[in-house]
Amino acid sequence: AHAGSLICSHAQGKTMLARSIVAEASRHGVPSMEFIALPPSSLLSKYVGESEKQMAEVFAYAKHGDGSALLFFDEVDSFALQRGDDTDTGTRRLLLESLLQLSDLQRSSSAKEHRPVIVVAATNAKVEDLDASFVRRFERQIEVPLPDAGARELMLRCARSPAALRAASPDMNHTSWRAQTPHEVGRAFDQ
Question: Which member of 61, 109, 143, 155 has the greatest number of CB atoms within 10 A?
Answer without folding.
Answer: 155
